[in-house]
Specification:
Elements (H helix, E strand, L loop, with lengths): L21 E4 L1 E2 L20 E2 L2 H15 L5 E5 L8 H14 L5 E6 L9 H9 L2 E9 L3 H6 L6 H14 L2 E8 L7 H15 L3 E6 L7 H6 L8 H13 L6 E5 L8 E5 L3 H13 L15
Parallel strand pairs: 1-4, 4-5, 5-6, 6-7, 7-8, 8-9
Antiparallel strand pairs: 2-3, 9-10
Helix pairs in contact: 1-2, 2-3, 3-5, 5-6, 6-8, 8-9
Length: 298
Amino acid sequence: MTLAPLHYIEPVYRPPSEADSLILPVTNGCSWNRCAFCEMYTAPQKRFRPRDEAEVLDGIRFYGETFGAGVKRVFLADGDAMTLSVRRLTTILEAIRRHLPGVRRVSSYCLPRNLRKKSVDDLRELAALGLSLVYVGAESGDDEVLERVEKGETFESSREALEKLRQAGIKRSVMILNGLGGRALSRQHAMNSAALMNAAQPEFLATLVVSFPLGEDRFRARFPDWEPLSVTGLMQEMELFIGHLELNRTVFRSDHASNWLVLKGALGADKPRMLEELRRAIAAPEAAPLRPAWARGL
């Protein structure tokens, strides 16, 4: 059996909605990799570097010869493929179009900082070549929370990046971290995150609960006075967040394994229902359909 020329450096991460996609590694690790809450790319083998261009192109050719038009979706890995130059992204997208003619969607993680030197016209060119969806970890819309966790972004830098993507016609899936500000900053985290989403009007929005499978030491070294929210506190923060959302046609999901209460719907049509589900769970958590602790596979 012929081995693919592209090798995967584990662990490999991708969004849940990319489960059926071809994972195409075009970078290794994350170019920022300073967020206090993130454990995804801290292992030594995940040190950031762009993948060799010839290796990537050989991999695309190999997958084309192996799977032909059977590949429908491609996810550009690792942590933020959008940090690559427009030229390199163009070369990769053109190769996908040439060798994988069945592909209907190309997607990638994207840090807001990745787009600072990319114009709307640049992004339109990438969209025309097939880049149709990016996953943006905004985490919070509150500048104090973002500074405390060393995100390297602000409300305005995230808003500007999301607006560029909108103008370019690239769909945006945004993630907010429930509980990221701890008890002290919970209210401003919820309110300003809602304000950011209202300004951006993303096509997709998801929430995860901040969690530390490898322990809290790294996070607390940068945010020493952080106090975690209780399960009820997390739901109260979600109630405040969703209550202040003014979204028109956003698909909302709060169904990641880290979430205690699964919420799904369209915002704003399903906002009243989701708020009612939250309020019932807050009032009587013992009767709520909460995910058991053992099932929160993180």
